[in-house]
């Protein structure tokens, strides 16, 4: 957690510190330049005011008065004639002569700046021309000591440094809380995935919000729940299959030992061999069903769809299964209109119906009736298999399509069920893009509805 929080915090700090540094530098430069520009404008304006007075009264008394006025201010003035000879001055410094001697061949009427390098020079300065009757007669030079400006900038720098320090502390504080807030759910997710990788799926990740982190937490939680369910299903499956395989193998081994070691009559021998054959067939069917389910799980179960005329198909089903129903003194009734086609794998569709009809035979009493009805609803084709057998308890209905699940567990061996038939039916129907539902009431009967997408053509 510390490493992740540190990395996130460092990343945020570098980004925010860079933005703050750029912003502070830009604001500082802008404020400094703006402040110096304001001082130069004020200096130029003051020089132009003196120039206006001198143009009306370009006399020694006026010149002296102007110089005296500036000697009491924080600015200085120097008045020269056209040849730049000093006529009056409020400052006694040889430095100002350098500014006066600078060439200024054509000074505009509004004046101009002749010194603005406040960082390296002692003064900033401006010059304004003095004219009478359109003729140039002298200049007004204004000066301001840059020490005052540098003091102002220094105070501004201190304020910026203080603001920057506060901003950095504030940024670091926010980043600490923010990085922890972001890292905490990520660390929990990391711990959860590590726990899942070790086979422990009992993780709990609360949804942190309607954002990407919340969606990620929910996805990990769903993954853990699914893996937990699959683990339980695998355990139950292995337990069931070991039990189901052990039972017929026990019968086969036991009766084979009897046949081999005992002196039996021909009738007894045939009886035991018949049991061995039945258990071998049961074992063979179970293995075949397991292979089918394994292929379905691996998406390697081939479904070869072809157009099937359901009227002819159901007639063949009726002819094939009627003897089995008659042998049990039961009735099989098939109702299918003509001109109904379904794109499906004929052998797999027959396998689906066989499994359902086989259940009807097993779980119906003599004189029972099973009806197959085919109908079209909108673009869907519905195949319904309904019997009036013993039915399924309501609380068992949600589980009948689970593998190895059997409703009548006490009679299963006598009836020959393995608990795989309905699981295969459901998977085969889903492989065709269809659905299956069941309705049942005890001692009234059971109804399976299979819905397939019809041929739009």
From TrEMBL:
SUPFAM superfamilies from the xrefs? ATPase domain of HSP90 chaperone/DNA topoisomerase II/histidine kinase, HAMP domain-like, Homodimeric domain of signal transducing histidine kinase
What GO molecular-function term can you cite, just one? ATP binding
* Cellular location(s): Cell membrane
Q: Give the stretches traversing the membrane.
A: 160-179
> Entry's PROSITE patterns?
HAMP, HIS_KIN
Quick check: keyword Repeat in the entry?
A: no
* One cellular component (GO) term of this entry: plasma membrane
The record's section on SMART domains has: HAMP, HATPase_c, HisKA
The chemistry this enzyme catalyses reads: ATP + protein L-histidine = ADP + protein N-phospho-L-histidine
Q: How does it sit in the membrane?
A: Multi-pass membrane protein
Chief place where the protein resides: membrane
Its GO biological process annotations read: cellular response to phosphate starvation
One Pfam family per UniProt: HAMP
Record has Phosphoprotein as a keyword: yes
Q: Which domain of life is it from?
A: Bacteria
Residue ranges that the Swiss-Prot or TrEMBL entry lists as coiled coil: none
Domain Histidine kinase: where?
Answer: 240-456
EC number of this enzyme: 2.7.13.3
Q: Where is the signal peptide?
A: none
PANTHER family named in the record: PHOSPHATE REGULON SENSOR PROTEIN PHOR
Q: Name it.
A: histidine kinase
Annotated source species? Cytobacillus oceanisediminis
């Amino acid at each position: 957690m510390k490493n992740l929080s540190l990395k996130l915090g460092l990343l945020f700090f570098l980004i925010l510190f860079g933005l703050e540094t750029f912003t502070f530098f830009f604001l500082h430069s802008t404020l400094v330049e703006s402040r110096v520009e304001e001082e130069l404008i004020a200096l130029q304006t003051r020089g132009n005011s003196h120039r206006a007075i001198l143009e009306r009264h370009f006399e020694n008394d006026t010149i002296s008065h102007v110089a005296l006025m500036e000697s009491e201010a924080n600015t200085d003035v120097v008045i020269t004639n056209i040849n730049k000879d000093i006529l009056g001055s409020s400052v006694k410094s040889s430095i100002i002569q350098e500014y006066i001697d600078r060439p200024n061949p054509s000074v505009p009427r509004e004046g101009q700046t002749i010194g603005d390098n406040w960082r390296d020079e002692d003064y900033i300065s401006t010059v304004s021309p003095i004219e009478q009757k359109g003729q140039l007669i002298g200049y007004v030079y204004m000066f301001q000591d840059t020490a005052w400006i540098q003091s102002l900038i220094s105070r501004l720098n201190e304020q910026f440094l203080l603001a920057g320090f506060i901003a950095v502390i504030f940024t670091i504080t926010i980043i600490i809380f923010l990085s922890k807030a972001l890292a905490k759910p990520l660390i929990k997710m990391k711990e959860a995935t590590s726990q899942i990788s070790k086979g422990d799926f009992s993780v709990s990740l609360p949804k942190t919000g309607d954002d990407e982190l919340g969606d990620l937490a929910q996805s990990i939680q769903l993954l853990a729940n699914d893996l937990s369910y699959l683990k339980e299903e695998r355990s139950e499956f292995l337990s069931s299959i070991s039990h189901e395989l052990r039972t017929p193998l026990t019968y086969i081994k036991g009766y084979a030992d009897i046949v081999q070691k005992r002196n039996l009559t021909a009738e007894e021998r045939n009886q035991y061999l018949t049991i061995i054959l039945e258990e071998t067939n049961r074992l063979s069917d179970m293995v075949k069903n397991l292979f089918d389910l394994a292929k379905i799980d691996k998406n390697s179960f081939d479904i070869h769809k072809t157009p099937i005329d359901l009227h002819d198909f159901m007639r063949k089903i009726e002819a094939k299964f009627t003897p089995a129903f008659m042998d049990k003194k039961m009735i099989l009734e098939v109702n299918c209109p003509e001109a109904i086609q379904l794109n499906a794998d004929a052998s797999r569709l027959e396998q689906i119906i066989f499994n359902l009809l086989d259940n009807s035979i097993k779980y119906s009493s003599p004189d029972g009736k099973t009806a197959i009805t085919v109908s079209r609803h909108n673009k869907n084709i519905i195949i319904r298999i309904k019997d009036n057998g013993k039915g399924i308890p309501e609380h068992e209905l949600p589980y009948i399509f689970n593998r190895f699940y059997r409703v009548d567990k006490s009679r299963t061996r006598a009836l020959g069920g393995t608990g795989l038939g309905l699981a295969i039916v459901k998977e085969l129907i889903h492989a065709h893009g269809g659905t299956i539902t069941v309705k049942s009431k005890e001692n009234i009967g059971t109804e399976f509805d299979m819905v397939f997408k019809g041929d739009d053509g």
